[in-house]
Amino acid sequence: MDDAAEYQKLRRNMQVAQGTSEVHTGLQDGISTVVYTAEGEELTINCEAESESSGQRDQWSRGVEFLFSCIALSVGLGNVWRFPFIALENGGGAFLIPYVIVLLLIGRPVYYLEVIIGQFSSRGCIRAFDMAPIMRGIAYGQVYSTALATTYYACIMALTIRYLVASFSEVLPWTYCLVEWGKSCVATGVTAANDSSIVQGVSSAELFFTQTVLREPETLEDSGLGTPSWDLVLCLLATWVIIGTVLSKGIRSSGKASYFLALFPYVIMIVLFIRAVTLPGAWQGIVYFLKPQWSQLLNPHVWYAAITQMFFSLAICFGTLVMYASFNDFNKNVHKDVIIITTIDSLTSILAGCIIFGILGNLAFETNTEDISQVVKGGAGLAFISYPEAIAKFKYLPQLFAVLFFFMLLVLGIGSNIGMASAVVNVVKDRFTHLPHWLLALGTSIVGFLCGLVYMTPGGQFVLNLVDFYGCTFIALVLAIAELLAVGWIYGVKRICSDIEFMLNVKTGFYWRICWALVAPGLMFLVLVYMLFSYEPLTYRGVEYPADYYMAGWIIWGLGVLQLPFWALVTIFQQPGKTFGSKFRMAMQPTANWGPLQTQKFEAYILHRKREADFKSPRGGYLFDNIFG
User: Fold this and answer.
1) Where is it located (predicted)?
2) What is the 3-state secondary structure (H, E, C) of 484-519?
């Protein structure tokens, strides 16, 4: 609405239609007209569609495509690459119990909440915060963090392609030792499986990764990052060509691709699991992974690791789920989908953990190492060291299994990266609707490739570790707390439950309400406090960074988190009120056109809110009413 005074009156009268005595709705030329009569005044609201005059938005060709796309997004490198090394760093079984508890108290409730918001509003993650405009900076920070994650996930995919090409060699290059690696090298080929002369050493798979593929320095102090490796640059280029091609086809094409992206990796994982459990010493590693260590439940660092891993594993609080759900049919019952996706995701993480720790148990057996946690270094290298270890021990056709495995890893990376890159593309598309989709996909791919060149340098893994912590993990935790406060307390648990009832015709149970309002934000806040009080300078492989890199890390973090106060101030001063207090109060309220994007459903929603205001009186104080009302 153009007139500021009329807009202010609209916002004042429209919120929950309090005090409204009569409502009339109509539809003409694709514009919904809602007429309120309140306190003797008549107020006409013209609500045009959010992105198109018809109120339509692209949708999945079939409802099941949303399920498979979310599986492809969530079940990815976070499960096969990140989960095992996070578990390795936190004591195996000591990490597993907190992870499952966090899944039930934070992961699943937040996943359901974000899917509901996206489906109800049919908006991308930025415009979804029309429910609480003052908190829109959360979405901008999440998109920023997602963009950073997209760049380094593409780096992992580039390394995967490098290994995929190497897998076509007559002899797998990580199965034997080179002279320049020294006498401490332990060949991982099947012929070296029972060499009793080895006392302790470093596996050839690890040396191949660090010395041949990465050319990694011991520190960044003297050599710096170095120049990008041309072979890895070509692999990175191939990665972005794949991502850009899929992105350019739009949501319907990526939905069809999701069938393969979601299902194929399990075929290879089952084969690898069978092979892993038959290796000598494998069960020692699996027991280390699955055996609970109850005393560690009181270790706050383990809970911090479990919560941050949950963000990566389920892809919550990055804006991608809201974006995917926005393409759903408005009345799709997503409750079952959420239960299926979160269960499959966690079981996949456990399956990947069993494979990895089975291999680590075997590696400890062969290198005469008693402490499994010291067998191999953590970080991104785990997927490119331990998995090749298993493949090297296949007596028959190891090259075939190497090709299948790294192709599987590539597929997992594509599934995750398409979701993250799509979130970034759709944010730009929602803002600049006149730009063709293929041009946005091309621009995203070019920028992603150029940013990814830094990871292709010898010191690239140092940078990846830095961006992973400051640009993703740290930012995600802060913005996730803010998101739950925005939805649970500014917009309100009571209202989100009312929206769910309007959309799905189901009541929301106390489990979801309590988790959204209290448990999830409370646990995350405690972990954040612990993280801040116990903060120590970040290291990679036990090596500290130069001071300039820490400064860069904090700048990366600040650019993400400061989106919240910046956009809050912008939103407040955009309001038409005369005083700061009135502007602030209006910025806390949903926008005038908040609700379903489809015109007819929006009209029905206005009437639904009117009936809610007429027949439901507050119960108890605000806190009690917000959760249980």
Assistant:
1) Membrane
2) HHHHHHHHHHHHHHHHHHHHHCCCCCHHHHHHHHHH
- Separation CA 279–CA 218 (nearest Å): 32
Question: What is the per-residue pLDDT across 376-410, written as a single tens digit (0 to 9) for each?
Answer: 555 556 678 877 877 777 777 888 888 888 888 88
* Non-local CB neighbours of 60 within 8 Å, separated by 6+ positions: 66, 69, 251, 252, 255, 327, 328
416 is in an annotated binding site: yes
Q: Name residues whose C-beta falls within 8 Å of residue 371's C-beta, 6 or more positions apart in sequence.
A: 364
Asked if 212 and 382 count as a contact pair (C-beta separation under 8 A), the reply is no
| pLDDT (average), residues 357-381 | 71
Q: How far is CA 457 from CA 162, 225, 454, in A?
A: 14, 6, 6
Contact 516, 316 (CB under 8 A): no
Query: What's the pLDDT score for residue 378?
Result: 56
Q: Are 140 and 126 in contact (CB under 8 A)?
A: yes
Q: Is 465 annotated as a binding residue?
A: no
Q: Is 51 assigned a ligand-binding role in the annotation?
A: no
Q: Is 274 exposed, middle or buried (0-12, 13-18, 19+ CB in 10 A)?
A: exposed
Residue 503 is given by DSSP the state H
Residue type for position 419: G
Average pLDDT over residues 108-127: 93
For residue 151 the two structure tokens come to 């760049």
Residue 569 has a pLDDT of 95
Q: Give Cα separations from 619 to 210, 236, 284, 513, 623 (angstroms).
A: 62, 57, 56, 15, 10
Q: Which of 409, 502, 511, 551 is nearest to 119 (CA)?
A: 502
CA 531 – CA 425 distance, rounded (Å): 32
pLDDT tens for 60-72 read 777 788 888 888 8
* Across 466-488, average pLDDT: 91
Helix 108-121 crosses helix 474-485 at what angle (to 10 degrees)?
Answer: 60
Phi and psi based region of residue 117 (left: phi greater than 0; alpha: psi -120 to 50; beta: remaining): alpha
CB 359 within 8 A of CB 282: yes
Question: For the stretch 154-171, what's the b/e string if a residue is b when 16 or more beta carbons lie within 10 angstroms of its beta carbon?
Answer: bbbbbbbbbbbebbeeee
Beta bridge partners of 42: 37
Q: What is the pLDDT of residue 198?
A: 45
User: What is the mean pLDDT of the segment spanning 468-478?
Assistant: 89
**Distances from the Cα of 360 to the Cα of 214, 255, 276, 369, 426, angstroms:** 22, 36, 9, 10, 41
Please, which residues bridge with residue 250 across strands? none
Residue 160 CA to residue 405 CA, distance in Å, equals: 10
Distance in angstroms (rounded) separating the CA atoms of residues 151 and 219: 23
User: What is the per-residue pLDDT for 253?
Assistant: 63
pTM: 0.84
79 labelled binding-site residue: yes
The DSSP output letter for 230 is H
**What's the mean per-residue pLDDT of the chain?**
82
185-186 and 202-203 as β-strands: parallel, antiparallel, unpaired?
Answer: parallel
SS3 223: coil
Q: Is 375 annotated as a binding residue?
A: no
Q: Give residue-wise pLDDT tens across range 307-346.
A: 888 887 888 888 889 988 998 889 998 999 999 999 999 9
Tokens 């995203």 locate to 444
